[in-house]
Amino acid sequence: MATLRAHIDALDERLVGLLAQRHALIAQAARIKKRIGLPARIDDRVEEVVANAGRHAASRGLDRALIENIWRQLVEAAIAQEDRYLNGDRP
Question: Can you give the residue ranges of the Chorismate mutase domain (predicted)?
Fold first, then answer.
């Protein structure tokens, strides 16, 4: 069990690293959106991102609804991050 837990912990660390990369990309998107006058929330894109994640999940045998729910939370956090930037609250 200890070995399995160590593998899970290592995978969790990699996932957090990927989320940090995603966060950096969202920061780039916010700068572009500010420059060209786009809002943080673009509903069509939200649905596209969530659907993409769901499709990828289903193709790997994962629970599509669960992954879409997780991705909605990720997207909402990204929108909040962009909103903070667009409103002048730069971290």
Answer: 1-86
